[in-house]
Design brief:
Layout (H helix, E strand, L loop, with lengths): L7 H4 L31 H15 L3 E5 L1 H15 L8 E5 L13 H14 L3 H10 L9 H14 L5 H7 L11 H6 L5 E6 L7 H10 L3 E6 L9 H12 L4
Parallel strand pairs: 1-2, 2-3, 3-4
Helix pairs in contact: 2-3, 4-5, 4-7, 5-6
Amino acid sequence: MHGLAGSVAQTRPFGSGLPGTKVLPHLRGHGGTVVPPDGPGTYADLAAEVEAVRSATGATRALGVSLGAGALLRSLAGAAADGAPLPYERVVLALPAALHDPAPEQDPGRLRLLDLADALEARDAVRAAALLRDQQPEAVRRLPSVGLWARRRAAEIVGPGLPPVLRAFAGAAPLADLDTAPAVLAAVRLPVLVLAQEGDDVHPVDGARRLAAALPAAELVVLPPGGVLWTGRDRLREVLTDFLGTSE
């Protein structure tokens, strides 16, 4: 599951070299999918989409990036809160952001997403590209590959489709509606890999550490700046193969 304003082009590398069939869905408002008439919804709605994909495909392992990680976490927490069987054997939560406390109104990451929504709505691809670039860790923002990706991605998503989703989920937290979030996380007893990277102010390492500490069977791996999406692909593949390629 991709991140906010992301696509399957960003999630595809995570499956490189792994055994089995890969399913790469787009969440609502992304990849040309339609935002429901009643609005972008909440993390609970995204979790329902994740569960629909799992049910339709029989997926046994899952990986989510940022927004996708939040959707997966909300799906697991919902199952745990209901006392239902957990739906996966293993899960990777890459670049998790907030857990149950929404970001403050003046949080820089939240404000960048709101600015991105405005730029896309105004069809300002140049401004949108700069904002997409600035969501990446500072250490990799000037890489040619990052700039090229940001320009291409801005051209793909410019227009009115994605802004409502950006505004709905900018600063939102996947467990904000669960009053007993810590207890619910303690009931998520399956192997979880929490993947973070240094120098990422949108997905701070401290948040990943708190999440890993709250999950009973979690492992935390922290990569160098840009190591999750831009640099060190060999190391990322090694980590994911060790975790997701393991037989139960």
